Amino acid sequence: MSSITMPGWIEPYLSVVKGEASRAQVAQLLRQIGLPVLGLLTFIFLWHIAAQRIDTSLGKFPGPSDVSQQVSTLYAEHKAGRAKEKAFYQRQEVRIEDRVAADPDYVPVRRDYTGSPTFFDQIITSLITVMCGFLVASVIAIPLGIVIGLSTSVHAATNPLIQLFKPVSPLAWLPLVTMVVSAVYVSDDPMVAKSFVVSMITVSLCSLWPTLINTSVGVTSVSQDLVNVSRVLRLGWAEHVRKIVIPSALPMIFTGLRLSLGIAWMVLIAAEMLAQNPGLGKFVWDEFQNGSSQSLGRIMVAVLTIGLIGFLLDRTMLGLQRWLVWDKQSAQR
Amino acid sequence: MKMILELSKVGISFETPRGSFEALKEVDLKIGEGEFISLIGHSGCGKSTVLNIVAGLLQATSGGAILDGKEVYEPGPERAVVFQNHSLLPWLTAYENVELAVKRVFKGKKSKAEMREWIEHNLSLVHMSHAMDKRPDEISGGMKQRVGIARALAMQPRVLLMDEPFGALDALTRAHLQDSLMDIHRKLGNTVIMITHDVDEAVLLSDRIVMMTNGPSATIGEVLDVPLPRPRDRLALADDPLFNRCRQRVLQFLYEKQRKVQPISLPIDSKKKNKKEERKHG
Amino acid sequence: MRMSWGKLRTAAKACAAICALTITSLSVAEVGYPEKEELKFGFIKLTDMAPLAIAYEKGFFEDEGLYVTLEAQANWKVLLDRVIDGQLDGAHMLAGQPLGATIGFGTQAHIITAFSMDLNGNGITVSNAVWDEMKKHVPMKDGKPVHPIKADALKPVVEKYRAEGKPFNLGMVFPVSTHNYELRYWLAAGGIHPGYYAPAKGDTSGQLKADVLLSVTPPPQMPATMEAGTIYGYCVGEPWNQQAVFKGIGVPVITDYEIWKNNPEKVFGVSKEWADKYPNTHIRVVKAMIRAAQWLDENNNANRPEAVKILAKPNYVGADAEVIANSMTGTFEYEKGDKRSVPDFNVFFRYNATFPYYSDAIWYLTQMRRWGQISDTKPDSWYTETAKKVYRPDIYAIAAKELIAEGKVKAADFPDFASEDGFRPPQKEFIDGVEYNGRTPNAYLESLKIGLKAKDKM
Ligand SMILES: Nc1ncnc2c1ncn2[C@@H]1O[C@H](COP(=O)(O)OP(=O)(O)OP(=O)(O)O)[C@@H](O)[C@H]1O
Ligand SMILES: [Mg+2]
């Protein structure tokens, strides 16, 4: 046999290709690929049938073909947007030249493209916002969770607050966040847009809790044996936290982070819709308002995109967890 | 012989939801430098509690443990513990587990290279050199226990405390580790206190066997000297009359004098519960 | 030497700014470069935002050295709040919004306008069920209803609903919206009481003594809300009346052109603070928008089909092009198939549509007083002062003169700035024929049948 080692999952496929697969292997393959594909096809078929039967005042509910057509429309719009952007910059150069000729002291400033964001731009915006919100939430939640987990008195003091704020929906936070940000975040030339800050804070506020709670539980449940090891070694507080508490709570922290990221993504879409902050949520809302015959198809594209991105985010976190966490059991699914 | 550790009138009570529970009462014991002591007694009688008091993980309610003339009130690396269930950090390799302890104890005293050598030396003492880069979940129970012992030994402790170090192992591995332990003890001359349920093991390894009465308010029932010459060879000893007499004495103590009267499930149950309690407060 | 040059330039700039602000200055001082080049303007998805879209798409903003981003807003309140807190530099506003904000009805903030965005463009639509009953009371000719349809035809329907204990709900877009006042005017002209506001008592629902209950719904959601049965009809701008026809869920019964011929509708609002800080920028924005308005009406609406295509883009109005075209190209479809020619349904430039007349502001103020949004009686002078605080024909004039000087527009298309005092001659073309004279608002209030009079207080 060849000396090259193959990744394990390739083997059954190889043997099928070589025609030497056993019946069991073929059956396993069918289960692994066949069933998901079958599920997907059934879904598309049912969707197609159902879509034809649902009549809305904006026409029929978009079926799979409408959606795929909208995907190409959106892509075409994206390309057109990019072309416009290029033209914009060219015009700007000409204008700057003219102005410098007329007004030699003028220090040219190049302005960003002012056109409306395309669907793909909105995806990027949403991703950036969710990542920032999620990062802020994690930076707050992990240390706080550790402190809460370590100290029973801090736990007792904060637990009622956590229970109180945990179930609050983003819709409730949003007006408060908006008003506070408007009042506090004042600058003539802000580094980032207010709307970005608002969505980010709303996302953070809502996605903080799973990480916080899981971290504190993870820290509380550090095995007494390991605590004893640390005591026998007379590890200082910081070293105890660094060497014993955090690694041992890491699987729980990651579980929390994954939940948080899921929530962050859901909250973001809602926040963008409500606060009219740029991003996918705003795209959906704008299309709903447009009420054109294409709107539903476009919204459906957004829905599928949102789902797909949510799924990919979760997979990414899972990959990260598998890579970073020693307890492979905790990162199974 | 120079006395290294003295337990004087050690008593301890635990506060439980059902009132105070006196686990130990007036435990008195003197241990000499380099001595190998076994603690034996029925489950739940208080052996681990004694060990934990010596380790400093538990505070005696009355009396106390004195090490080198100083009272013990907190844990420390000079009293290394081999825990009942190895207690390795699951995210570190065998090497790193030992390294953690070595770095703590020899920081500033050994150079990096010296530390590395020292860690590898200790792992080779327990025959773990081949698997130093494996994580606990990648090695067998016996191997884990050996890494635990290597970690304790690498701290160069004044006293080595072992809580049923071979409890969960099969007979073959166990015999193997017992031999290694005897070997190490002979080479290094550590003072060792070991808890065991295995009478043969106690007789084979110990200089003295400390037998505890049943709880509550457990204390030392008898202390048996094992005057067998070292090095000891398990096969030769099997027919040794002195060995068998010692064995007999311990069995008599356990199964005649301290026969369990209460049903066996009760103390085990309460112990589980207590462990849980302990975690919550810890 | 250098220092003094710099100083001289600043002095010159300051001088230019001061001159620029005096409407009476004879020679037009050239407007300086914009103080702020990157701007963000808000709009609501309605066809009358067209001047903004056109100024952007046709490069009029860029010609003024402005880099403008246009952003659709969720509703009129959010839009106003964002102009106040500075997230938006300016916005497409309801004529009543700068006035309402400045006198402190709703959110208090000093908002001004130097540009009126359009005339007309709204309609009142009722649900199919209401129309079926209403139709019985509408005079017919050649099998078609005689227009304008008065609210007299709606009155029996409202009475029937009320007798059955069903509240008769209608939608409008904002408490100080043109739509609110137009709907109220039409209802009151037909003897239906639309209800009073009493802000002093904390009642801002506007439903006191009401025969029909008016409530706020954002324009793009009007059709869906009516379809859901929450409201029986609404008053809104385009394309949301035509949308109801296309969806087959309702029938537009009257356009605002028929309620008050060539009524002023949307304005372009900015905060006073912003305008003071960026005077050159403001003038340049107005210049770009005047050109856009001119483009929209040029050559007898020749550019309208192109405008429709632009507005149909998802980032502007986004409705289907046919729906937008229905009203933008000079027609209006009432009952399905009953498409009539209404060439002035949307006016962006003709009839001095872009000039911010004080008298237009005062009409809105009279309606605010009429329905109790202004609790106390006010002297005529107050109306004029308030209008002058908010409406800024002076800024408009500088922009227009500059454009005339640049040869981009014709002086004939504008009022004679030397003699214009900001008051239109008395107007009579209302659905009930009552005459409006902006110089005598209190007398006008007395002449309206339903509504608060000088002595009344809510
Ligand atoms: N933290 C605690 N709180 C209350 N009771 C405790 C606590 N720790 C131990 N005990 C009780 O003290 C007694 C002695 O426990 P210990 O663990 O020392 O027994 P042991 O002899 O080591 O038993 P085993 O051989 O099963 O390990 C038991 O009855 C146990 O229930
Ligand atoms: Mg024990």
Description:
The complex is a heterotrimer of chains A (333), B (282) and C (458). Chain A folds into two domains: 2-53, no CATH class; 69-331, MetI-like (MetI-like fold, Orthogonal Bundle). In chain A, 77% of the residues lie in helices and 1% in strands. Chain A is built from eleven helices and two strands, in the order ααββααααααααα. In chain A, helix 4 runs antiparallel to helix 5 (152-165). The mean pLDDT of chain A is 86. By secondary structure, chain B is of the alpha/beta class. In chain B, the strands form two sheets. Chain B has a six-stranded mixed β-sheet, sandwiched between helices. In chain B, 40% of the residues lie in helices and 23% in strands. Residues 263-282 of chain B have low confidence and may be disordered. Chain C has 458 residues and is α/β, with parallel strands linked by helices. Chain C has 19 helices and 18 strands. Chain C has helices at 2-21, 50-57, 60-63, 76-84, 96-103, 128-135, 155-163, 178-189, 222-227, 240-247, 256-259, 272-277, 279-301, 304-311, 321-328, 358-370, 380-390, 393-406, 441-447; strands at 38-43, 67-72, 90-94, 111-116, 119-120, 122-127, 140-141, 144-145, 169-172, 196-198, 203-208, 213-216, 233-237, 250-255, 266-271, 331-333, 339-341, 346-347. In chain C, strand 16 (331-333) and strand 17 form a beta hairpin. In chain C, helix 5 crosses helix 17 (380-390), helix 13 crosses helix 18 and helix 14 runs antiparallel to helix 15 (321-328). The chains are: A mainly alpha (333), B alpha/beta (282), C alpha/beta (458). Chains in contact: A-B, A-C. The complex binds adenosine-5'-triphosphate and magnesium ion (MG).
Jot down its keywords.
heterotrimer, B: 282 residues, alpha/beta, 6-stranded mixed sheet, 4-stranded antiparallel sheet, 40% helix, globular, disordered C terminus, C: 458 residues, D-Maltodextrin-Binding Protein, domain 2, 5-stranded mixed sheet, 19 helices, 18 strands, binds adenosine-5'-triphosphate, binds magnesium ion
